[in-house]
TrEMBL record:
Keywords (A to Z) from UniProt: Ribonucleoprotein, Ribosomal protein, RNA-binding, rRNA-binding
Subunit structure comment from the entry: Part of the 50S ribosomal subunit; part of the 5S rRNA/L5/L18/L25 subcomplex. Contacts the 5S and 23S rRNAs.
Cited CDD domains: Ribosomal_L18_L5e (cd00432)
Family annotation (InterPro entries): Ribosomal_L18, Ribosomal_uL18_bac-type, Ribosomal_uL18_bac/plant/anim
Family stated for the protein in its record: Belongs to the universal ribosomal protein uL18 family.
Any one Gene Ontology molecular-function term assigned to this protein's record: structural constituent of ribosome
Purpose of the protein: This is one of the proteins that bind and probably mediate the attachment of the 5S RNA into the large ribosomal subunit, where it forms part of the central protuberance.
Name of the protein in question: Large ribosomal subunit protein uL18
One term under GO cellular component: cytosolic large ribosomal subunit
Length: 119
């Protein structure tokens, strides 16, 4: 029986997340979600179960509403790096979920690194 596209995505996401949790215990997680229209990212403290900071392409102050491209992802990455500094986070591990590390996801990660966040 063939798995659906969604089931394959879920398997990839859980495989990635379980491997990351084994080697990054105690660090903050930078979780990315990419839809067909937007991209969003959260800094999550898994120990306490709280979101420390977040950024999304839906935010009007970033100036990327309605744009689903690499430049929009880079602006979101820069915004999360700035908000991480305000929250006192310098280091995080990058949880790409089930998404491949290229295109918008890679642009977001690179912009967050350039903003001073150690991934």
């Amino acid at each position: 029986m063939a798995l659906s596209k969604r089931e394959l995505f879920q398997k990839r996401r859980m495989r990635n997340r379980s491997k990351l949790r084994k080697v990054n215990a105690g660090r903050v997680r930078l979780s990315v979600h990419r839809s067909s229209k937007n991209i969003s990212v959260q800094l999550i403290d898994d120990v306490n179960g709280v979101t420390l900071a977040s950024a999304s392409s839906l935010e009007k102050d970033l100036g990327v509403v309605g744009k689903n491209n690499i430049e929009a992802a880079a602006k979101v990455g820069a915004a999360i790096a700035e908000r991480a500094k305000k929250a006192g986070v310098e280091e995080a591990y990058f949880d790409r979920g089930g998404f491949l590390f290229h295109g918008k996801v890679k642009a977001l990660a690179d912009a967050a690194r350039e903003g001073g966040l150690k991934i």
